[in-house]
Amino acid sequence: MADKKNKEDKNPAIQDEDQSKEKDIEEVLPDEQAETTTDENAESVSESEEVTEPELSEEERLSKRVVELEDKLLRSAAEFENYKKRMAHNYENLVQSASENILTEILGIVDNFERAFEHNNENTDFEAFKKGTELILNQMIDLLKKHNVTPIVALGEKFDPNLHEALMQVPSDEQEDGIVAMEISKGYRYGQRVLRHAKVGVSSGKSEKSEKSEKDEKESDS
Q: Structure pTM?
């Protein structure tokens, strides 16, 4: 009886608070249930879409793969074409820069030639003019050596079509048949590569006159 009375005598404010909490719990539970139901429905729809997506046939998969490969090939071809253009442009710039450096050095030699001719007009000393010209020639040879350009030795060497260009055959008492007896124009190498072949005359051996003269000398000695 005492317990019952205590319950009945409970503070009305406390009873109102308990009722409010119960009401909040009742309101939250439906919301959570609604969210759970929505998520389940969304997952169900997603699974349904995945399941209902049509499967590609073997032919369709191959066609799709071909299209992808063609696209990659076109992209690669375009990139390679751009690469070639860049490399060609860089090569042109490199060649132009190298040519400008060499030409600048040649201009210095041209200046020396001009000074030599101006000096020659004022001075009739041939020996001085010759000496000045030789100095300029040596300057040019040094410039060629600096850039790895060297002359090809031809005179007295066995004819080599890789190095020499035969313009004629000449009889020679000094050189045997097939030996370069005359150098008409010097040849040059650039490194190990032939820049210009030497233009030469190749010995055909002793002339008939020389052979006859030698024969007569031997007969007279005997």
A: 0.53
